[in-house]
# Entry
Amino acid sequence: MRGQRFIREVRDPSRRILVLTIGVSVLFFFLLMRLWYLQIVKSEDFQNLSENNRLRLVPVAASRGTILDRNGDILVDNLPSFSIAVIPQEVTDKEGLLKSLSRLAGMNEADLSEKWDKSRKRNRYQPIILASNITRDQLEILEENRLFLPGLDIEMHPIRAYSHGLLGAHLFGHLGEISEQEMGTDRFKRYNPGDYVGKSGIERYWEKELHGADGGRQIEVDAMGRFLRTVSERSPTTGNSLVLTVDLALQKAAESAFGEQAGAAVALDVNSGEVLAFVSSPSFDPALFAGRLPAETWNKYLNDKRHPLENKALKGQYPPGSTFKIITAIAGLEEGLIDENTTITCTGSYKFGNRSFGCWKKSGHGTVNLRKALRESCDVYFYRLGEQLGVDKIAFYAKKFGLGEPLGIGLENEKPGLIPTRAWKEKKYGKKWLSGETLSVAIGQGYVLATPLQLAEMTAEVANEGTVYAPHLVKKVVSPEGKVLQEFLPTVVRRVSLKAKTWQAVKKGLFAVVNEPGGTGAVARLYEVKVAGKTGTSQVVKLRDRRGGIPYQYRDHALFVAFAPYEKPEIAVAVVVEHGEHGGSAAASIAARILRTYFEGKGVIKKPMTQKTYSSAVLQGESPKAESVGSVPEEQNGND
# Structure
């Protein structure tokens, strides 16, 4: 018994040792596996974590490319600005930091928090931009308190500088912070939250060329986030520059000529399709859109009856009024329904069925041929011609001149206008076309709509007798080093083939509009250069009683199209003045200012003397001559 007990006692310690040995072995096995996992599997991740604890990547934003006019004058450039950013990994108290930033810099805490939350999916070691374009005072306050703001980073970002204020705002467009929706598209896949991108105009359409590529610096910081040294650096690449077709002096003159009036103007080079001026009035301040637009400013823009945020030259669709009589005349001549000697008698109205269509001149124009019909804008002449043609024939010729479809100028959201046909009305409204509707179409009313850009293109095609150039805004794309990367030469899209007699008859009529007694466009006359053109007045609403004051929003639009010189055309212009009432006065005077500036720039017309040059001329015994300024000749009696 004692022997057996002794044997069991001897064996029990061995068993305990075995169990203990197995337990220790399992423990060491798990330790070794954990060590292998940390050292081998996760080594790269932990190395990155370790490096990022002492290294910080500071992005360096690229400057956008400069935008210049055709002569090399700077239109849009860049200026340095400062932004507030934070490194999330270094922030232990988000709410406390945002409260401090709000208190010190006078910023809205909710806005800062919103910016932070939008970037929460980013790497925690990459900076999040919370506010851009901070003031010098804000910068100094934050720098003074930097030790108490862990994770704070002040970054330098270039912002757009608009060299000429509000000039060309609709053309150049504006920038804005990239949205979450944009970040999710292929177009912006290489962009970062907080980047600024083109939101409209040339800035948006040419974003890829203008944006450039961001750089960065890897710097070493201490435990307090203070800079120690630069470890590595990659320089940003400035975006390419654009040389536009626009002429700065002409753009200034056109915008200035509108004053406080709303409307649009487009000037084209007749022989290349280059856009020389592109105006939408009134303008807006594009610099305001780079940050959070103040509510009062936004409401001011929205409540302005002149709609300053709308690009009227590209998107404004207006009844072309009597400027469309050019198309009706061409259609009649080409179809053999009239020639330049065909006459009718205008008594002030035209009877059609049981309706009477009035002429703008209630007393009538008397005996009228094509030249007089264009010169004095006789509605009755074109009512009759429209009835003979029918709406589909008119539409056929209108579309030959690019009306009713986008022209592809190189800006987004271009409107197509509208040229109605029988089939269009049937499809759109499920109703048959009424013959009486054709009479309205013949004088550019009814369903007809056109943009100022389309009217300028139509006028250019009449001026050069049928060569259709692609209208374009950019002459060259230039690298930061000055190398021309792309050049845009005139491109002929198609030819409008008409009889030589048709071109001659219509152009003679347009010459008469400006230069002959009774012409409705006499305000556009330049005595040094022969101008041809056509006035137009388009009805906004039909008013039975037009006596007394008509509210602004119900007044007629004023239009004028022109080209010059008459003998060898170089420039075509289209002007629309919203609610300007009479094309012969409101719109023609703006066109005259544009044309005069153009020919002054070419030295064909002498610039008006300033007081200084006038005094100098008098001192030298010269007799300064008065310059013509497109004033209204005494014989003008047109009202279109």
The CA atoms of residues 275 and 493 lie 16 Å apart. The first helix runs from residue 2 to 41.
